[in-house]
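TICKET: design request
STATUS: open
ATTACHED STRUCTURE:
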């Protein structure tokens, strides 16, 4: 019987990894399509600036959690695991570096130093956190980002905070599709600069999200019902994330096209 149970557990884990990965890959392809659609049309320099500013609004969000590092440092080896501490510091540093890379491009495009109010005008958190004030969870200039947060809140209410945050982590960067697409851009100085920055971001984001999939499944999914719930919630969260990504890039995809992506009608090819 033990052997039968082990096979059953392995089959469920394999099924869970496959189904959750399909969700991630579907929306990752959709986010790549957002970038392709943006560059398929002539764009002004000011449009490029706004895209950079909207994206860095998500990259700088880590400063809202910076105060949590202090108690982690104080309690190191006294309740705080050294690996968790180093991982937290590394991810915060990476997000700050992403902000620096993209803010530098925004100021290069603008041809001048931008005001703090403009550089930080699109700041918004990417995931719901009940410990944050409402003013940090929503930005009136990015309504789709706010709806993304609302879906995150629903997931926390349905699954509990710890499981929900781990599940949402699987969707970090929307699966990375937009970043990978940008990393392959070329043809003018803006595309070349953005591609160079995005190659750094791609390397970091792949560790933040999709690579957590196997450990998540091993720890969290033990029944078909848990898998069904996780697939449903991950799909809802990544759909909201896709809409937010589309918002960042000036909404180049129609609602009809986004609905088609949700149904699985995606194009996995990359720009040449």
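STATUS: resolved
RESOLUTION: sequence designed for all positions
ATTACHED SEQUENCE:
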């Amino acid at each position: 019987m033990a052997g039968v149970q082990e096979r059953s557990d392995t089959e469920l884990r394999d099924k869970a990894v496959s189904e959750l990965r399909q969700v991630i890959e579907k929306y990752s392809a959709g986010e790549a399509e957002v970038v392709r659609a943006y560059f398929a049309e002539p764009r002004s320099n000011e449009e490029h600036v706004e895209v950079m500013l909207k994206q860095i609004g998500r990259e700088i969000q880590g400063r809202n959690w910076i105060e949590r590092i202090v108690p982690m440092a104080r309690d190191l080896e006294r309740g705080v695991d050294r690996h968790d501490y180093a991982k937290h510091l590394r991810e915060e540093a990476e997000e700050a570096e992403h902000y620096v890379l993209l803010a530098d491009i925004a100021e290069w495009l603008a041809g001048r130093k931008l005001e703090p109010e403009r550089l930080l005008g699109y700041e918004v958190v990417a995931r719901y956190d009940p410990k944050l004030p409402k003013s940090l969870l929503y930005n009136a200039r990015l309504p789709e980002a706010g709806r993304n947060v609302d879906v995150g809140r629903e997931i926390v209410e349905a699954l509990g905070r710890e499981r929900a945050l781990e599940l949402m982590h699987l969707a970090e960067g929307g699966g990375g599709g937009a970043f990978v697409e940008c990393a392959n851009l070329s043809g003018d100085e803006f595309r070349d600069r953005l591609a160079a920055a995005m190659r750094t971001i791609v390397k970091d984001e792949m560790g933040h999200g999709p690579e957590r999939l196997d450990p998540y499944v091993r720890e969290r999914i033990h029944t078909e019902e848990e898998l069904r719930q996780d697939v449903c919630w991950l799909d809802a969260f990544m759909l909201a994330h896709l809409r937010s990504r589309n918002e960042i890039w000036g909404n180049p995809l129609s609602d009809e096209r986004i609905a088609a992506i949700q149904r699985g009608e995606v194009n996995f090819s990359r720009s040449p």
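CLOSING REMARK: Residues 94 and 204 are 7 Å apart (CA to CA). The mean pLDDT is 90.
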